[in-house]
Every structure is written in structure tokens, then in C-alpha cells.
Amino acid sequence: MKKILTVLLAAMLLCAAACCAAESETIYLADVGEGCEAVLVVENPVTVSFLNDEVATGFVYAKVSREGLADVHIVIAKSEVAEGMSLADLGEEGMAILKEMVSEQYENPIIEEKTSPSGNLFIEVCSNEEESEIDTMLTIFEGYIITMDVYREDFSKLSEADKAFGEEILYALWFNRTNE
Length: 180
What we know:
7-stranded antiparallel sheet, 3-stranded antiparallel sheet
């Protein structure tokens, strides 16, 4: 009987530990318009450092880090040109112009459109599959331009794990309505 209780208790503790490990963390990044905020909802621990004074500069610059991986640099800035618009509102011609502008800094750019689990359309650009030192992801949400650059401080080649971390952070970005 004691053995059964011991095994049962051990099983319950393992289940409790698994439940605790599966909890997500919500990290506030910025207000994006009236009654809406940009947040990261992450399953695995990250460190977020804010690298500027939002009030003084008018934009948010945050670095998201996880030990051993490239950093994800996020910039969130209001755009007068895209006021009230989202990336999907640009249409074919607008998307083509934006893709050209974003990819100018890359040699032989690879450009992809992706949709995050939260329904946000993103453009992802990298140099090429084999020699990428930086990946850039961009979206527009209600007049705010959000860019995410994934790179190592020494600009060495990104590993598959670095790219996966960048995509994890991309998919962790949510826009929450606070006035509903």
C-alpha cells in the first residue's frame, strides 16, 4: 500500500511540474493605438531589454534574448504614412513597393509572406538560405510599423536554432485590445 501511495504521489508531482512548466508569460512591449497593446506571449523564458526612452524617441526598441541564441531586436514606431492601416491593407502594389524597400539592404534576398497564429501578416527577408547573418521581419498594425531583426552581435552566420528563435518570437507577438 505504501508503494502504491508513493508512486501515486510521485506521479501527481510530475503532473504538477509539467503543468507549471507549460504556463506562458505575457510581456508588455508598447501601446499601439487607442485601447491596444503589443505583447509577447512566450512559453519558454526570454530576457527583454528596452534599449531606448520611448517618450523621448517616439518609438520602442526592445531586444529579446535567450542564452546561446541570436537576439531579436524589435522596433515599434507609429507611421503617419500608414496611419490606421495594416499590412494586408497595402494591396499588391503597396506590398511590392514595401518588399523592395525592405530587401534593398540584402544581396540576393529571399522574401516570404507569413501569417502568425494571431492572424498578423508579416514579410520576412533574409540574404539567402546558406549565408544569412540577419533576418528581418516586418508588419504594419493599425498604423504602427513593427520590425524584428534577428542577428548575433558579431553578425556571424545564423544557425537554424537562431532562425527558429526569431520565428518563435514573431509568432509570440500579439496585439491585445485593452478596451473590450
